[in-house]
Amino acid sequence: MPLDLSKKNNYEILGVTAASTDEEVAEAYKKLKAKYSEDRFLPGDAGNDAAEMLEAVEQAYSAIQTERNIANTDKSSERETKREEPKNTSNQETKSDDADYAEVDRLIKAGKIDEAQQKLDECSERRAEWHYLQAVIYYKKNWGNECKKQLEIAMTKEPSNAKYKESYDKLCKELDFKNKNFTSGNAAEGKNAQTAGKDFDPYDRQMGGDPCLNSLCQCLACNMLLNCCCRCR
Amino acid sequence: MFGYIRTDDPYLYKKDETLYNACYCCLCKSIGKLCGQMARFGLTYDVTFLSVLLHNLANCDITINKERCVSHPIRRRGIAAPDEISEKAAALNVILCYYKALDDFTDTGKRSVKSAVFQNGYKRAKKKYPEIERMAAKRYGDLTNYEKSKTSSVDMVADPFSKLSAEFSSFVLGDSATEDTYKIFYFIGKWIYIIDAIDDFDKDKKRNEYNVFACAFPDCVSGEQLIKEHGNDVFSTLNSVFYHLKEGVENAKFYFNKDLIENVLLRGIPKQTDAVLKKYLKEKEN
Fold first, then answer.
1. Could you tell me the CATH number of the domain that includes residue A117?
2. Which residues, other chains included, contact A147 with Cβ-Cβ below 8 Å and sequence gap of 6+?
């Protein structure tokens, strides 16, 4: 089989055209993958060719998928801008979205993060508020970086909104957090100075108790004895 | 993925060193008792630290006795008496070792000796604590899926391991688990995953294996370049981890003094991070 992959585009490798639907592409991918997965164990060049083809098919499929995803998001964002212009006509939709957003907000506050995420995924329209809510969910999931990305999108869509800006600044502070306290080296000493005046601090119990606290003395005693021995020569 | 959690020795109190070593030995013995002698080789300081942290948060004191053991037959050492928490930590340790060995197996395609070593121990741990095994199986499944999808989101791919650590803490602490304890363990897990990914960047590149930073910044060919060109993105991820660890340590309720906890979380972890980052910068100098 001649392997002139460089001349073929992604669609040709899969044997489909740019006009094919997502399902058709997926179907072709599955078939080819199954075929080459088996063939790559053939002896000699046939096996090698199949392995190469398998890789090419994988790459082509993922490239097509990303391409199509980007195209889809572009389309949906176009739709959004179109919708935003004639705002009065689509008032009803905005309202229903607002209700959805409020519901998501309520779920987040109730701590039902997974449900909130599900609800948010169902919203068709992705306005600035959508990205803000997604950011909140990410924050609750402790996903700092993803949260930042969503807030950035929300801010570009609605630069005038103070809420987004405020959350973003707060988050940036966390991400720029410098652990001065530990690197400058005085966290423990500062604390000792604080507790020095207290007679008894319930949180200053030593775990493990006496053996831990005595160990230093034992070490010292041990050391002293050894030293004595050494000097008694 | 193990061995990154260390103490910052110059600032470690002698009493805490004793405590840490006692817990280490205790964990070793617990593993031996629970999962057999072979599994003792998998012992890590990471899980030892989790055990100390859990004891403190659960208000469970440890008793230290002087005992001999196989690897230290002559001098008797302080060894903490085994209890439920250290037994659960022991089970976690063995289960994680087994999964890690399996993971290496799927990555490289070669069955490693390690998985055979831990298989028996894993079975015994699974029998005693099926809950821990279930958690680990679920999260490792998630992790494999994310890695297969070649995601470029650090938060996402670090999530399963972080959640595993957090869920384990909630499982052990039971009623005393709070949001703060969850957070501490979540970010410990996250840090371990991230630092491992940075540390293995060159190795993964060479072997053409999945690495989240390689997917996030496909133009980088070496770890050195990663730190030089995308250092800020990497640092901001790590900084947020430090921030939350500090917040967690400040807010969580500790029943004993937290000198050792602070040493590890607030000093050891940043220090270890620096060491990993410097590794790349140093190579450049030479």
1. 1.25.40.10
2. A135, A136, A138, A139, A171
Q: In the prediction, which pLDDT does B196 show? A: 92
pLDDT of A89 strictly over 70: no
Cα–Cα distance, B86 to A50 (Å, whole number): 52
Q: What is the predicted ipTM?
A: 0.80
Q: Strands, DSSP E only, in B29-138?
A: 64-69, 72-80
- What pLDDT score does A83 carry? 44
Helices (H) and strands (E) in chain B, counts: 12, 2
CA torsion sign, B119 to B123 to B129 to B135? positive
User: From CA B121, how far away is CA A227, in angstroms rounded?
Assistant: 45
A7 DSSP 8-state letter:
G
Q: How far apart are CA B26 and CA B61, in angstroms?
A: 13
Its pTM stands at 0.72
| β-bridge mates for residue B80, sequence order | B64
How does pLDDT run across B85-106, given as a tens digit for each residue?
Answer: 999 999 999 999 998 888 777 7
Among B7, B13, B15, most A C-beta atoms within 10 A, so best to mutate, is B15
Say whether both A142 and A169 belong to one domain.
Answer: yes
Residues 54-93 of A with CB under 8 A from B: none
CB contact under 8 A, B61 and A212: no
Last residue of a domain, one of A46, A63, A84: A84
